[in-house]
## 1
Amino acid sequence: DDIPRAELEAGLTHLPLSPYVGYRTDPDGRADATTLFQLAAQGGFQRLPKGDATFGFRDEQAFWFHSRLFNESNTEQRWLLVLQYPLLDNIDVYLRYPDGRVDHLASGDMLPFTSRAIRFRQPNFWVDLPQRTEVELLVRASSKSSMQAPLALYTFSAFAEMERDAQLGIGLYDGILFALFFYNLVLWISLRDSSHFWYMCHISGFGLVLFCLNGLAFEYLWPNQPKLANLAIPLSMCFSQMAMHQFARVFLELKERWPLGDWISRGFIYCYAIAAVASLWVDYRVAVQPLTYSVFPGVLIVLYQAFHAIRNGYRPARLFLVAWAMLLLGTAMYASVSAGLVSKVFVTEYGIQVGSAMEMILLSFALAYRYANLRTENERVVREANEQLERNVSRRTAELSSALEQLADANARLRESNRRDVLTGVFNRRHFREVFEHLLHQAAETRQPMGVLLIDLDHFKKVNDTFGHLAGDECLRVLSQRLQTEVAADNAVVARFGGEEFVVVLPSATAARVQEIAERLRRRIGSEPVRYGGKEIVITASIGTFSIPLGFSFNPDDALHQADDALYVAKNNGRNRVHAANKS
Ligand SMILES: Nc1nc2c(ncn2[C@@H]2O[C@H](COP(=O)(O)OP(=O)(O)OP(=O)(O)O)[C@@H](O)[C@H]2O)c(=O)[nH]1
């Protein structure tokens, strides 16, 4: 019998019972207290493994714990026995006093909350420990959840003090979660970014799981519905895991950035949806055990997704990864306790709270960072679009003004070609008429003399007949060039008047000057034969001139008529000569 008895010395206010507890498994759960008290007397109980009542998921129907309590000198006689794990289904406490009396107390989350000594999230019992009396404690615990039965004795005041601190911690934690929840609710409503919505789901799912696990959900949400309290654990686990994967999908933009990772997340989400529905029917243990274990690969895959995103240059994933590492640490610690891998100490028991609180806060930062990132990205896109637009506009403007220039140019050329005779390049008759009218008007106004010459090539029909029409064309071209160069110095206007007939207007020229120029032109035409196709074509011209007397005003038709008459005389007088209308 090497398990020591728990001795309550004077001044002691609380005592964890693990070092003083022996345990025994009850595979079919049918053993009764009387038998177990006998077994205890025979040393049939073992010390706790690693000195700690944490066993993980076990197949045995029940566990029995035995301890001898001896109030040696403590003035406090009424103690609170607390079972510091809220998820045990049934707990039976038997106290055997020296006089043979056995008290039986029952609690656990399969009984309504009111069965507890104190309304508190962990099962608890009043235990009378009179001074200098050994009381035997026998506890039967059964659970479909992980088997943990850390027992402790508290005086009422010590319990109140301990609980104050614990409630403060829990309040702080839930306060952080509530604040982040509502903060992101506001962000979601105002920004309409679904990542905030999934973050809220992630927070509330996670918070709900912890609320169930630490017994507060049973205490505050459904104190009289033990069944619902038990069902809430697998359901909230499924919900929190679905929200976690969905949040990761949205935050890390997996659909666009890593479709395979997206598919894996969706796979997890579908599995949890099925598990949630299944947990309504299947046994609690069957549901919770795989769910607890599935948290490991689930969190790891999200961790890997974050790594993947960082490797592909997605900056917001960095903070996400740090946040996730915190959660991973906390979750791993908690799950390890549940699985009985590590003992229950502060860091392992509250690691999940600390880790997840850090995670939630960091994720909130990550969301803000992501938002800022998106905004900068949007601004960049808008700026680039604007720059592109400006470039396009100035290019189009340049194109347009060049087109306008070309058009103006083409218009000018068109206007010019409208004035010119196609064959010879000198002004055509229509333009000549406009200019002539203007010049006549100007001459009358400024009282300047002016001359007009009508030049008709002699026997041009014969040229065509002899040398061909193309040769005739060449003659017309060459002669009109000669006319132009000959009178260029006199500001003269040269135009083709008809087939082989030209007209020349000489502004400011006196009658003598008109005669002189006409004579010069006639000589120039006749003196130089036109060369075409190796042949020399001699051409002469008859010219009729009309000098407008000073101070007289003529209309174009009358003036031309005068010149034409003179030309007619020149022709009749034998051609190749000049005749002035004014002389006749
Ligand atoms: N090759 C060519 N011939 C032209 C053109 N325009 C008119 N002619 C010819 O010029 C000739 C003018 O003939 P007519 O009016 O009889 O006068 P002509 O033969 O010059 O005789 P006179 O004027 O009396 O000396 C015609 O045979 C027309 O075919 C042209 O653009 N090119």
Note: The chain is about 55% helix and 15% strand.
## 2
Amino acid sequence: MVLGHESAGTVVSVGNAVTSLKAGDRVALEPGYPCRRCSPCLSGHYNLCPDMRFAATPPYDGTLTGFWTAPSDFCYKLPENVSLQEGALIEPLAVAVHITKQGNIQPGQSVVIMGAGPVGLLCGAVAKAYGASKVIAVDIVQSKLDFAKSFTATHTYLSQRVSPEENARNLIEAADLVENGGADCVIDASGAEPSIQASLHIVRMGGTYVQGGMGKDNITFPIMALCLKEVTAKGSFRYGSGDYKLAIDLVASGKVDVKKLVNGVVPFKKAEEAFQKVKEGQVIKILIAGPNEKVEESEGLDTSVDEKKLKENEKASAAGGCC
Ligand SMILES: NC(=O)c1ccc[n+]([C@@H]2O[C@H](COP(=O)([O-])OP(=O)(O)OC[C@H]3O[C@@H](n4cnc5c(N)ncnc54)[C@H](O)[C@@H]3O)[C@@H](O)[C@H]2O)c1
Ligand SMILES: OC[C@H](O)C(O)[C@@H](O)CO
């Protein structure tokens, strides 16, 4: 199967009825095409369409290819000041826009984000743009927290191998959330069971919890905390009406600097090395040039992989996800 669903490109040709785009336009590609007829589609929640054709999701091939065909309303023209490289990052940013909308974050609120991978980092950036005054990044890897702090987090917390309740208590104290009774909103962007368990103890009475991370199908969940605190719990899946547009606006207006997440660009023939390099855990995003682009050598990074670091990162990810 062809991989790829985070992409941007240049229009080569358009169908007869298309008036919104022309050859040469640079666009961010929304990679999932709903049926437009079912009840979720008609009620404006097309991301929940059961007949979605989503790139790189079986049986549909992905966007890591020379040419791609898409409905014109799922191709978003990029403003002059937004590069094609930034355009490729609109997809994960739209995921973060949707998660953060589900969190209903208000100006001045505190938001804890579990997981400082690309999605968690972008949720932090969007929460800040929505006016959150405290953005607390949580991870099990210190280097990820260091980056989060340099990106948008106001506070960081390195999750310890202690009970979820103890991690929650320590975090609430460290982030000065005691008076608030916890965080106004907690977002899980890790999918890891211990993180999800701690989240329900971190959120304040009447606060909001959003499940953005995708991990195991079934986990043990402190449901009594949800009940006793009257927590609003929401899921978040991909993105829907207006999310891509808002993501592009956030980049164009300079409110979210997605360029900071890019470690380098590799030519198409080095795509596999790029995936390995990301698995090693030392970089955030590597862009892969399309096969028709004139990128001959990797720009900005050495793609050689340190096998020891690769194994260590796989072990850490597995530990985060299962214990
Ligand atoms: N809801 C959606 O539509 C949607 C879309 C895209 C991605 N996702 C999911 O969002 C999550 C984040 O995506 P990503 O690309 O940033 O992934 P990622 O793997 O790069 O980031 C996950 C981060 O969580 C950290 N982590 C692991 N265990 C932890 C724990 N116990 N406590 C705190 N942090 C912990 C990891 O160290 C890592 O930095 C993934 O689960 C992914 O599948 C969901
Ligand atoms: O960003 C979109 C996500 O990566 C996809 O929904 C995928 O992870 C699940 O099908």
Note: The mean pLDDT is 95.
